[in-house]
Structures are given as C-alpha cells and as structure tokens.
Amino acid sequence: MPSTWKVDTRKLECEVLDFMADLLRAPKDNWWGYVTNGGSESNMYGLYLARELYPKGMVYFSQSTPYSVNKDLRILNMHRVVIKAQQNGEMDYEDLRETISRNRHMPPIIFANIGTTMKEAKDDIVKIKQIMSDLAIDNYYIHCDSALSGMIAPFLEPRPAFDFADGADSISISGHKFIGSPIPSGILLARKSNVDRISTAVSYIGSKDTTIPGSRNGFNALLLWYAIKSVGKEGFKARVQDSLKKTDYALGKLVQAGIQAWKNTNAITVVFPAPEQEYIDKWQLATENGITHLILMPNTPYDLIDKILDDIIPSVKRERTHN
Predict the structure, then answer these.
(1) DSSP 8-state class, residue 10
(2) Which domain holds residue 46?
(3) What is the pTM of this model?
C-alpha cells in the first residue's frame, strides 16, 4: 500500500514476495507477505495470526522445533503441547493424532518444521491434514517454518508437502540461509483473508498496520531482491542440485571411513556422532545430544569438505574408542 513516506524499497519488496508466492504456490489474489528481520519474527507473525483467528487454540509442535518458538509462544501467551519426534527428527504423527483427540475442544494450531535444525527433517502437511480430516476437525491453522528448506524443497523430486497448495496457512523462510543475504532477514507469506482480519488503519502514516515491527529495514528487501534477480529460479534450482551432490560426497566419505553418518531424503544436512570438542570449536559445528552435522551449502568448496572430514573422521573414531 502507498503511504505518506516515499523513500523506501517496497516496490522491490513486492517483487521479492511475488517471486516467493509463485515458488510456494500461494493462492492467487489471496496472499500477503513482508520481509522480516529474521525467522523468529516470521514465525511469531504466523503464530500471531493463528492466535487472532483461534484465541482458544492449542499449539502443537515437535520436540525437534527450534528453541525460539517457545519464546514466541511465551510472548504471545499461547497454550502449547510438545509432540514426540521420530528418530529422523520428523513429527510423530500418531502422537499428534492422539494428543489432538484429547483436546478436541481447542482448535489445533500446528507449527510444522520444514527442515529441523539438527537433522533437516520435514513434517508432512498432507499427513497432518489427513489427521484433521479423520478427527472431523474443521477449524485449524498450519504454520510452516521453512527457514532453510523453503528455498530447497520447491526444487526437489518428489516435492515435499509443505506449501500453500498442500494446505499451509503461513510460511516463513530465512533470507540469510540458502538465499545467502549477508544480513539476517526473513520472508513471511500468509493467506491475505486471514491478515485482513487483524489489520488496522493508521491515519498519520496513510497506511495499514499489518506487520509486527512497524518501521522496518528496507535494505533487507534490497538485498533479497538483488539475490533473486542475480540468481533466478533456474539458478536456485542448480544450487540445490549442487548442494545435494556435495552432501552425497561428504556422506559417502564418512560412511566409507566407518562413521555412522546418515541424512534424511533429499536433505543437504549430514548427521553423525560428535567429534572431540577441539574440532567442534575449530569448525563451529552445531552439536546436540552427542550428534553434530554438516550442512553442505552451494558455496562450500570440495577442498574445504575434505579438510573438515580429515579432522572429523579420526576424531569421531577416537571418541567412539574412548566411550
């Protein structure tokens, strides 16, 4: 929308959002979005929309969900239940079914992970919707946190069930992850019909108040616009294929060396036992409950992969011997 303030990058922001809406199969003429300061804000917006639609709703999310979501839920004062996660990090759908059936008086609000932090597991929106159908639940909301995988999943075969065509009501993607912005940012898309129900007009700015922060960093939109215009849809598709090849390369070397490494289907994250602390610190490895991972991004050269693995493989073997 136009406003009294004219020095902005909103036209470029709209081009970014148009690109993302097409990629995420948003419903024609019924989507809205904005460039956020990062994933936590994007997720908070999706949850905020859900709360306004269903004030007495119950939020369900798996134990693989990022830590920031609990913070968002505390700020929003929303009821929540943690659902078990499967071994691969994906939500346990039977536990979800049983838990929802015990709380039928509260509309379900599903926080789905489309690429968990440690294992890049993707919750299946089609399976979640089937549970709602089986339980005869009509009023529910699904938010998809697609921080990393939102720019990967649209180019995978088979395509994961995660976007608007699959039943999502809102989706968040990080700008500083696969897109590669040097400054933290995020992209939030939601169904416009839901957003219209919470927007309010503000006379002195000549526009509507629909975002969380109000004033926003227009430079983030510029960076994302530049990345999208420079790389394009086919460029991102090629980057995904490049990352998948590098992931198979790293996984193959670990397995060949006798390391119990694995990855989820079509993921670019390789999971394996944690090495010694020295190498966790040296290579800045995210580690939790005795496992760590490598995320093979498009800008990772093969010689760097080899250097990391040359340290990790003997270190993991020493750790396994000591334990």
Answers:
(1) H
(2) 10-230
(3) 0.94
- Side-chain half-sphere of 238: how many Cα atoms within 13 Å? 6
How far from 178 is each of 61, 149, 241, 305, CA to CA, in Å? 24, 8, 13, 18
Co-location of 80 and 209 in the same domain: yes
Q: Are residues 289 and 193 in the same domain?
A: no
How far is the C-alpha of 34 from the C-alpha of 36, rounded, in Å?
Answer: 6
Asked whether 162 and 168 are in contact (CB, 8 A), the reply is yes
Which tokens hold the place of 264? 């989820």
Q: How far apart are CA 205 and CA 208, in angstroms?
A: 8
Q: What angle, rounded to 10 degrees, do the helices at 302-322 and 218-256 form?
A: 60
Count of domains forming the chain: 2
CA–CA distance, 180 with 1 (Å, rounded to integer): 28
Tens digit of each residue's pLDDT (9 = 90 or more) over 124-159: 999 999 999 999 999 999 999 999 999 999 999 999
Query: Domain ends where: 230, 249, 283?
Result: 230
